[in-house]
Amino acid sequence: MLTCMDARIRVFEIFGLLQGESHVLRNAGGVVTDDMIRSLALSQRKLGTREVLIVQHTECGLSMVTEDDFKDELEEASGLRPTWAVEAFREVEDSVRRSVQRVRRSDFLPHTDNVRGFVYDVKTGHLTEIA
């Protein structure tokens, strides 16, 4: 399971899982990045994972920034411009669809048939399947 680092997303509770029943990967936005593909590849190839769930959420901080503005801010503060993508987005549903496609198209993942995407509403607790 790949989700945002937002503490409001209680992954095990949402899916009715017990501790230890799922690998949980978290990053800003719950987007599929190269590092998430690396972790998913290890999970699938060495630990037997066969399904990938991507859970992003409403009111995400990544929907409130832009790539260039955040990179400009970091460059101004540090003197260095990040080489990595911020992965900012406006519509969470579109971001979920992009992340699902990145997993499905990855040559590093042997199990790409069972990939599902969801949006979690942080106000209502409702989970909507997107892709």
Automatic annotation (TrEMBL):
Its EC number is 4.2.1.1. Its cofactor is Zn(2+). Zn(2+) binds at C4, D6, H57, C60. The lineage of its organism: Bacteria, Bacillati, Actinomycetota, Actinomycetes, Pseudonocardiales. PANTHER family: CARBON DISULFIDE HYDROLASE (PTHR43175:SF3), CARBONIC ANHYDRASE (PTHR43175). GO terms for molecular function: carbonate dehydratase activity; zinc ion binding. It is an enzyme of class 4 (lyase). The keyword tRNA-binding does not apply. Catalyzes the reversible hydration of carbon dioxide to form bicarbonate. Binds 1 zinc ion per subunit. It holds the Pfam family Pro_CA. The keyword ATP-binding does not apply. Belongs to the beta-class carbonic anhydrase family. It comes from the Bacteria. It comes from Amycolatopsis azurea DSM 43854. Keywords: Metal-binding, Zinc. It catalyses: hydrogencarbonate + H(+) = CO2 + H2O. This is carbonic anhydrase. InterPro entries: Carbonic_anhydrase, Carbonic_anhydrase_sf.
